[in-house]
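Predict both folds.
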Amino acid sequence: MDEAEVALRPVTADDFWLFERQAVDPEAAGRFNWSGFRDVRATRRRFDDDGLVGPDGGVLIVVHDGAAVGTVSWSRTEYGMPAWWCWTIGIALLPDHRGRGVGTAAQRLLVGYLFDTTAAQRIEAYTDTENLAEQHALARIGFAREGVLRSTQFRAGRWRDLVMYSLLRPDHDAR
């Protein structure tokens, strides 16, 4: 896949079909992102407040071949003090666009955007220990596997382990 076919853009009101589908359709959310039905009105309220991009995080639309196919997100994570922070990123793609390199390209674009527009030194990502595709995508972007966080996500009736990855600004800049 040509990474030039993938882009990120701000959310518009016309994109709410995507959020609504991910909130009520387990297949659209994906096996590793589905943890029950969500209130889409909360997303609409936040959109009305800040367009889903604020100082503590945001959401952008993943575009592939001109169509909205998913979302990438980031949120601020603090380690003890407000001055000690990093971004935690995530992605959710519609089923037809998974396994084709779209997610890797979108996350690479998000990492570049965050390092280019914020003072972050570190970006983190977590994924289910069974989500090998996401682990490979993060490694291709340059993320380092840091370890396993035991029983941190409740999904499909049981607690799941997550793998933690990180990418530091100097490692990103060297690439």
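Second protein follows, with its predicted structure tokens after the sequence.
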Amino acid sequence: MSSNNLDQLYRQVIMDHYKKPRNKGSLENGSFTVDMNNPTCGDRIHLTMQVEGDIVKDAKFDGEGCSISMASASMMTQAVKGKSVDEALQLADIFSNMMLGNEYDDSQDLGDIESLSGVSKFPARIKCATLAWKAMEKGVKENKQ
């Protein structure tokens, strides 16, 4: 697949998550909530997660922001459900390295998350893509059992 076709596919995946976000809403019985914003561009997120034992049972988000920010939140909530807290943090580390253009562990199937890899070429947009991930990291680290 040519680079141009791959870029187009990635744009389509991002727009799909933006227009039809997965896990949008809030949890009434969440283990924790985290509110964060990106004052540079106005993105904001309200993340609620339910963690039982060491497993992320559910994750939902609400907020507003650009397509990259909201698509990333949708992808993140999908990716961490059913994972252990440590696995969720490992995914956040992989994502952070991908955003910074660093080498990362690509042995895991990142699924739709990989469509955000091109954001690393646009430093001003990295904070948009990482906002939800930073909220998840903050929440699980502060509430680790």
